[in-house]
Amino acid sequence: MNLPRYIHSFFELVKLQKIEIYNEFSLQHELGLYLRNHLDSSFKIQFERNIKFFDITENLIKKELDIVIYNPTTNERYALELKYPKNGQHPETMFNFAKDIKFMEQMKEHGFSHTYAISYAEDKLFYSGSNIAGIYGYFRSNNPLHGEITKPTGKRDEQFYINGSYTIQWQALEDSSKYYLLEI
What top-level branch of life does the organism fall under (predicted)? Predict the structure, then answer.
């Protein structure tokens, strides 16, 4: 299945204002409904599915998948984590973007066929700006996201390690909105 093709087609409809998204919940449900209407009916599409459903009992960085697509008669499974930030908090949200990527790495390690991190932003400070040091550099420049990621604010007491190396490539939709689709 070429899931990225369907996701890019979905965002093209957002660009053409044929699908309206206005917060993360609407992104999750509109994308899920779009996929349900376009994918083979042998696939189930579910929202906020706990990882225990897939017999994953160890502690991972997160416990629930935003969207899961699976075929109950085969081992074909896809996981999508979504972000649509609306209230600034740029470094914290960028840290959460990275956390989704780590979670998708973990799901891939647990047998998922393909995993994806998807973020949509209308605030240009998520994808551009003069500050490209630290967490900003992964999302505002071509700095590859890899290695130890530490919470950028507060006590800085949360960290994790990104195994792969990922370059975030934002796709323009309108004057100020962009999204990225990262396959893990």
Answer: Bacteria
- DSSP calls for 58-96: S--S-SEEEEEEE-TTSS-EEEEEEE---S--HHHHHHH
Q: How far apart are the first and last CA of the chain?
A: 15
Q: In the structure, what pLDDT confidence band is assigned to residue 173 with cuts at 50, 70 and 90?
A: very high
Token pair 């908090």 in the structure block, residue: 89
pTM, entire model? 0.94
Q: Which two tokens stand for residue 179?
A: 């999204």
The ranges assigned to domains in the chain are: 3-183
Q: Which residue type occupies 76?
A: E
Tell me how far apart the alpha carbons of residues 12 and 35 are, in angstroms, rounded to a whole number.
14
Grade residue 155 by pLDDT with cuts at 50, 70 and 90. Answer: confident
87 vs 66, more confident? 66
**How many other C-beta atoms can be found within 10 angstroms of the C-beta atom of residue 28?**
20
